[in-house]
Amino acid sequence: MPDFNFPIRVYYEDTDSGGVVYHSQYLNFMERTRTEWLRNLGFEQDALREEYKCIFVVKRIEIDFIKPARFNDALIVSTHLKKAMFASFLLTQSIIHQKTNELLCKAEIKIAAVYPDTFKPRRIPELILTGVKA
Amino acid sequence: MPDFNFPIRVYYEDTDSGGVVYHSQYLNFMERTRTEWLRNLGFEQDALREEYKCIFVVKRIEIDFIKPARFNDALIVSTHLKKAMFASFLLTQSIIHQKTNELLCKAEIKIAAVYPDTFKPRRIPELILTGVKA
Amino acid sequence: MPDFNFPIRVYYEDTDSGGVVYHSQYLNFMERTRTEWLRNLGFEQDALREEYKCIFVVKRIEIDFIKPARFNDALIVSTHLKKAMFASFLLTQSIIHQKTNELLCKAEIKIAAVYPDTFKPRRIPELILTGVKA
Amino acid sequence: MPDFNFPIRVYYEDTDSGGVVYHSQYLNFMERTRTEWLRNLGFEQDALREEYKCIFVVKRIEIDFIKPARFNDALIVSTHLKKAMFASFLLTQSIIHQKTNELLCKAEIKIAAVYPDTFKPRRIPELILTGVKA
Predict the structure, then answer these.
(1) Does residue C2 register a pLDDT over 90?
(2) Would you place residue A2 in the very low, low, confident or very high pLDDT band (cuts 50, 70, 90)?
(3) Domains of chain A: total
(4) Which of A58, B19, C100, C103 is the most buried (most CB within 10 A)?
């Protein structure tokens, strides 16, 4: 399936006194985009939790910070499903600067399905597996 | 009872590209200090939640930002109980710069006790009321 | 001039383990909305800083937290200019739940113009004063 | 040189509505610890910036999230210098739960020295290279 793209604006809260976006904030941008990616496929995570007893947690991240974003920059965050397994997804995500098209950072992120109460691993509900692969 | 003081260091994550601590972050510093104030009185909030079905939420804040803090500054955050009511506390909190002793911001904060599941107001458990007034 | 409204979605990063939006995060939502309010009037704050040596800082906030927002909620944040002075603005801002129209919090916020290097107060550039009153 | 350890307490602001610490927050904990590691070696980063025109930025992170931390947990964050190069450091960092000694997450992090104004790579000042290897 095609990549999913989501626009994010940099506000003061995202920056630090180095004058650029604080490094861990890019992970927040990527998580917002995963939420919108699932929503776009028809999956609301509060409903997934209630109806399927399924929440997603981040298990592993490899991220390269290539060029800094700054206050007021308009960014495009993309999500690409690299591999869907029984109990986890492997995604690649990247952030580009909207105006210049420069790549600011890229990451490979492993997301796992767990039960909300115990955080024990669980199979990804079939409906979601089918949805993300479509 | 005497004021409670708690030291907080400013890290990069707390600052913004204006070069100073991001304004809402001072509220986080104040909340950390309220947590340590309660801990110092013998109250762990995770235990209060489990045993007493009581969590505290912020109902109202009046805060003046007087002078900015910067990266690496050592701060002292103080908490003073102004008034304890049946279901809420009124606290005054302030933040000073440790080295210069300058007042950076001061706030009056109303905290209410609520049930964790419904967020409905509830009486503050007697043990806590007694403890904070001691 | 009419109120300015801006939609904001609640993500995981905005919530805390109480199950609701962390209290200081509403201030971040309000600041994003002030940035968009100025942008909507034609003022980009990075340009204001460069060309006019003017940045805006928060001097005082009075905020009431009325009802909590939760993960995935769609919110509308509004900004209303109550008074424009030589060196500061007084704004009222509120946050409502988009679906239910319930008022979640409301605030009165004083914003001051300062020089970026010294944080000393300065007059608000005429162009901006005219713009926000239009 | 021996590992550097730094204690960090989990506050409400660090958690999300899943009931655990929000994933990117562990990176903030690690960055606080790197700041304290450098301070412990005698290097204040605001002084490094002024005197040496040197700031450190994160270039790459590989992080595994093994077990979640929760509100009120006391954590120990450790920093180990794996390799010091001309213009960058390779560090391994881990977070353990103080009471249970369980490993919560571990990361390999590449930090690069850059000029504060241009963010161009630069050699790490000799004094710092010597200090961190000692």
Answers:
(1) no
(2) confident
(3) 1
(4) A58
User: Cα D56 to the chain's mean position, in Å?
Assistant: 11
How many angstroms separate the CA of residue C133 from the nearest CA in chain D?
37
- For residue B28, the enclosing domain spans 4-133
In the predicted structure, residue A82 carries a pLDDT above the cut 80: yes
**Which pLDDT band, with edges at 50, 70 and 90, does A134 fall under?**
confident
What's the complex ipTM?
A: 0.96
pLDDT, chain A, mean: 96
D71: pLDDT strictly greater than 90: yes
Name the neighbours of D, counting chains with at least 3 Cβ pairs within 8 A.
A, B, C
Element (H, E) at B17: none
DSSP string over D3-65: -EEEEEE--GGGB-TTSSB-TTHHHHHHHHHHHHHHHHTT--HHHHHHHH--EEEEEEEEEEE
CB A91 within 8 A of CB A108: yes
Confidence of residue D125 (pLDDT cuts 50, 70, 90): very high
Report the C-alpha gap between C3 and C110 in whole angstroms.
17
pTM for the model stands at 0.98
String of DSSP letters for A51-105: HH--EEEEEEEEEEE-S---TT-EEEEEEEEEEE-SSEEEEEEEEEETTT--EEE
Which residues of chain B lie closer than 8 angstroms to C15, CB-CB?
none
CB D32 to CB B11 under 8 A? yes
Say if the Cβ atoms of D63 and A61 lie within 8 Å: yes
How far off is chain B from D56, nearest CA to CA, in Å? 11
User: What does the alpha-carbon distance between residue A10 and residue A111 come to, in Å, rounded to a whole number?
Assistant: 25
The CATH number of residue B85's host domain is: 3.10.129.10
Q: Following DSSP, what letter does each residue of C38-95 receive, concatenated?
A: HHHTT--HHHHHHHH--EEEEEEEEEEE-S---TT-EEEEEEEEEEE-SSEEEEEEEE
Q: B33 vs A109, B64, B113, C17, D92, CA distance in Å? A: 35, 18, 17, 18, 31
Rounded to the nearest 5 degrees, what angle is found at the Cα of C25, between the Cα atoms of C21 and C30? 120
Give the integer Cα–Cα distance in Å for A75 and A99.
Answer: 8
C26-75 confidence digits (pLDDT tens): 999 999 999 999 999 999 999 999 999 999 999 999 999 999 999 999 99
Among chain C residues, the shortest Cα distance to B114 is held by: C18
d(Cα D94, Cα D105) in Å, to the nearest integer?
Answer: 6
